[in-house]
Amino acid sequence: MKKDKVKFVWTPKKAATAISAYMVGLFFIYPYINMLLTSLKPHGELYANPTTRLPKSWNFSNYLDVWSKAPIADFLTASVVVSVCATLLVLIVSVPAAYYVARNRFKGRAAFLLLVLATQMFSPTALIIGIFREVKFFGLLDTWPALIVVNAGFNLAFAVWLLSGFFASVPVEIEEAAMVDGCTRFQALRRIVLPVTLPGLVTAVIFTFVATWNEFTVALTVISSPARQPISTGITTFVGQYDVAWEYLFTTTAIAIVPVVILFISIEKYLVGGLTAGSVK
Amino acid sequence: MTAISMGANKIKNRRPANSVISALPWIGPAILLILLVVVWPAIELIRISLTKITSAGSLEGFNGLGNYRLLFENPDLKTIAIRTVTWVLSVVFLTVIISLPLAQLINQNFPGRKFVRWAMIVPWAASVVMTSIIWKWMLELTSGEFNLTLRQLGLQNGQPVDWLRDPRYSFFVLIWVAVFVSIPFTTFVILAGLQSIPHDIIEAAQVDGAGSWQVYRGIKFPLLRNSLLIATIINLINVFNSFPIIWALTRGGPGYNTDTTTTFAYKMAFVEYNMGPSTALGVINFGFIMLIVLIYLRVTKATRDQA
């Protein structure tokens, strides 16, 4: 941290480093710049010959028109409802588990942590046929609750591991002092520990939200009504048999991508820790 | 910081081990959710793979290994299996090989480093299926960025290449996109590994006259072992499971030409309604992931014990 404050002096070698880093950054962000530029083109310019990178006429109106071209509002509503509910479910389930695991030794603790770690490694893709049949068994095909529960289940591990690390770093003395002053254990958790572990909670919330927002395979398999689809599968609406409305497709993906990228960047510091929890320390 | 870690150490000694019963109110909901969402589908998958099942999904009694026999009689399976191995190994290898120097690069001190790191997070944060669709557009025959650039650089004369539909190229294009979306996560894991190396070790080596390549080869790289191992294993699983990239770009086609066992199992179940062999393949896929997970748990246990 301190090192960054030292005044930077340009040398040829440092300039070379900086320039290659900028090119790498540009490389990884370029497809998304291309997406934004295409989203502003009128349809006629998409296949124009010769093609140009920048739109000749900047059709910002694409961002208004798209709402009437496909049920974008429905897709976004589905994505927000499913992601928010899955995130809440993860919080409700993971906070007590992570707290207890951080504070107590009990028989089966190692087994529990192992179970959690193993689920983090599984993606729903491998189990999709089993998931489909289970959802059908409960009569939840084509419903949001199915997506909410499945997404919460597969994102639980990240939250449990990350939060147990945060809880373990809060000195137990503070908590005990609160309990001496008449707090119950639950009150101590809520008033003393949770505020201190706020960065961990925010990270868990954003991570689960973004992962659910981006989830594709389960949504594709479980949801069949166009109007109930989240945005991740809803975008295929623009892919017709012979023609793709790329400009509206990319208007939609831009609306879907930009907010989650900002959220994800805001938790950059903690991401790696949560994903490789229990391994890299 | 020391006070905090001392506090964390103390509790371990202070409270006696509790029984599972007293833990259940706290960890029970998590166990329930895992049983419901992960264990149930896994058991259901295995059960169905041993059952005769119609294309409509109704069950007609125990079938032994009939579904597995049907699967192995499929003439396309062998090619798809070989392609899956090629797919996983090449994507993971390329990802790790490219991420190593990239992590080193964004660990350097230069103005705007924060923004370069942010740019590298974008493909990680964005939906994989959306990124794949963007690449589909960039690889488009006439107006795609890729062919446009090749033309402008004078590298492509005459007929433009149809990267996604030409069977000579389509699989490589998939590998390319998979590497592109895997690099950011991998680079950040390695970066975290680099940042955890204490400065004094490096400075000591520099004082002793080690050049920057010697420092990297002799000190940093060996200390990155754990990060590399974890990144490799997580990538193995992710790439093996990778469904959206292939589905969005080629649907495994033309024919089964770009299918992996993951997309093939999905295609059989939900496109061709050939449920029986699909569940058999699903179980084999699941078994493979299980195997990597067990290796992962072993490896991480070793690192956890060291800590």
TrEMBL record, chain A:
Keywords: Cell membrane, Membrane, Transmembrane, Transmembrane helix, Transport. The chain crosses the membrane at residues 15-33, 75-100, 112-132, 144-172, 192-213, 248-267. This is Unannotated protein. Pfam families: BPD_transp_1. GO terms for cellular component: plasma membrane. It comes from freshwater metagenome. Residues 76-267 form the ABC transmembrane type-1 domain. It is found in: Cell membrane. It is a multi-pass membrane protein. One of its GO terms (biological process) is transmembrane transport.
TrEMBL record, chain B:
Residues 81-296 form the ABC transmembrane type-1 domain. PROSITE patterns: ABC_TM1 (PS50928). GO terms for biological process: transmembrane transport. Its main location: membrane. This is Unannotated protein. The chain crosses the membrane at residues 20-43, 80-103, 115-138, 169-194, 227-249, 278-297. It holds the Pfam family BPD_transp_1. It is found in: Cell membrane. It comes from freshwater metagenome. It is a multi-pass membrane protein.
